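Figure 6 in text form: structure in, sequence out.
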C-alpha cells in the first residue's frame, strides 16, 4: 500500500534556506514550501521532523483521555475543587497538540513556519498558566496557604503568560510593523542573531516555570518544621522537577547531535529527546498533582479559600483570549506578506533568495 503513495523528496542542509537549518542536523529536511498534503504525508516518511511530530501528537491524545476521564467520572461542574485539575489537563492536551501541528506544517512556507511556532509558544505559555492554577489549588505548602504570595500568585502567573508569549514571538522576528512588515525585509532576529533569539526564547519559558515552581521548590527543598506538607507525594515532585531540568538542558545544549553532526538526523537528536522528556515530566507532574489533590483535599477544604471561577476557568479564558490576540498581532504582517516567501511549490528548494532575506 505504502508503495502506491509517492512521498515527497527530502533534502540536505545545503539545499534548504538558512532559516530552516537546525544545529547538527544535516539531512532529512522537507521542502521549504511543502503542500499541506506533503506535510501530512511526511508523518509516515523518514524526515528529521517525523519523530518530533509523533512524540507530541500521541501524548496529546493520552492527556485528552485523562481529561475526559476526569470530566466524565467526576461531577466537575458542581465541584469547583476539581476545576484547576481540568484546566491543567486541558493545557497538557493543548501544548503537545500545538507543537505537533507546528512541526507538521512549519515547512509550508517561511511565514507558515513563523505562525506555526507562534501558536506553539502560546500553547506553552498556556501550559505554564495551567501549572500555576493547579499548584495554587493543591501544591502550596500548608504554611503559605492564604498568605499574601498565594493571593497574588495567579494574577502574576496570568501576566507572566502574556509576557512569555510576547517574548517568545518577539524572539523570531522582533515586533510586528516595527521590526518586520509585509515585505519581511526589516527583520533581524531570527537570522543574524540566532543565538540571542534562542536565548530569549529560553528565558521566555524558563522564567514563568521558575515563578510557578516557587511554592513547590520552597516546599520540597527549603521548608523545615511545621506546615511544610512533607507527604508521600514529595518523591513524585522530585522526579518531575529533575526531569524538567533535564528537559531544559536538552533544549539548550543540542546534545547529542552537536558532538556528531549528521549522526542523529532521524533518531535521537536533542529535540526528540526534549519532547520525550517534556511529556514524561508532564505525566509525573500530573500524577503528583492528582495525588496531592486527593490526599490534601480534607485539609484544604477546611483551611484554604475555595477555588473561584476567576482564579481557575476565568483566568484560563483570559489567557487563551489574550494569547490568541498576541499571536494575531504578531502574525498580521505575515498574513499579508507578499508572495516573496510563498512562491510556487517547485521540485528544488532555493538555498538562498536575495530578495527575501534569510530565505
Ligand atoms: Zn518541538
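Output sequence:
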Amino acid at each position: 500500500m505504502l508503495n502506491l503513495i509517492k512521498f515527497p523528496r527530502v533534502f540536505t542542509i545545503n539545499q534548504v534556506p538558512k532559516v530552516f537549518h537546525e544545529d547538527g542536523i544535516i539531512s532529512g529536511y522537507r521542502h521549504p514550501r511543502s503542500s499541506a498534503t506533503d506535510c501530512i504525508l511526511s508523518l509516515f516518511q523518514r524526515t528529521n521532523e517525523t519523530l518530533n511530530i509523533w512524540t507530541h501528537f500521541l501524548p496529546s491524545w493520552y492527556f485528552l483521555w485523562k481529561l475526559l476521564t476526569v470530566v466524565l467520572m467526576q461531577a466537575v461542574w458542581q465541584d469547583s475543587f476539581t476545576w484547576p485539575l481540568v484546566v491543567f489537563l486541558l493545557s497538557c492536551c493543548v501544548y503537545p497538540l500545538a507543537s505537533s501541528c507546528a512541526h507538521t506544517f512549519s515547512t509550508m512556507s517561511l511565514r507558515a513556519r513563523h505562525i506555526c511556532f507562534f501558536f506553539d509558544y502560546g500553547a506553552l505559555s498556556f501550559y505554564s498558566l495551567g501549572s500555576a492554577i493547579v499548584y495554587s489549588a493543591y501544591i502550596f505548602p500548608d504554611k503559605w496557604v492564604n498568605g499574601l504570595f498565594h493571593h497574588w500568585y495567579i494574577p502574576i502567573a496570568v501576566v507572566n503568560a502574556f509576557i512569555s508569549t510576547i517574548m517568545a514571538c518577539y524572539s523570531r522576528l522582533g515586533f510586528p510593523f516595527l521590526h518586520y512588515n509585509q515585505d519581511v525585509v526589516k527583520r533581524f532576529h531570527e537570522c543574524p542573531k540566532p543565538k540571542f533569539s534562542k536565548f530569549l526564547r529560553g528565558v521566555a519559558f524558563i522564567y514563568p516555570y521558575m515563578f510557578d515552581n516557587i511554592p513547590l521548590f520552597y516546599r520540597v527543598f527549603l521548608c523545615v518544621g511545621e506546615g511544610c506538607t512533607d507527604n508521600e507525594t514529595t518523591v513524585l515532585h522530585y522526579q518531575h522537577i529533575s526531569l524538567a531540568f533535564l528537559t531544559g538542558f536538552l533544549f539548550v545544549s543540542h546534545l547529542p547531535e552537536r558532538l556528531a553532526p549528521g549522526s542523529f538526523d532521524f533518531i535521537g537528536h536533542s529535540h526528540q529527546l526534549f519532547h520525550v522528556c517534556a511529556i514524561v515530566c508532564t505525566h509525573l507532574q500530573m500524577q503528583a498533582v492528582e495525588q496531592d489533590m486527593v490526599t490534601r483535599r480534607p485539609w484544604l477544604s477546611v483551611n484554604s479559600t475555595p477555588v473561584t471561577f476567576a482564579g481557575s476557568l476565568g483566568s484560563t479564558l483570559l489567557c487563551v483570549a489574550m494569547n490568541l490576540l498576541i499571536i494575531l498581532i504578531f502574525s498580521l504582517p505575515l498574513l499579508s506578506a507578499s508572495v516573496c516567501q510563498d512562491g510556487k511549490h517547485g521540485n528544488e528548494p532555493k538555498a538562498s533568495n536575495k530578495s527575501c532575506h534569510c530565505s
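Caption detail: Confidence is low (pLDDT under 50) at residues 339-346, 351-359.
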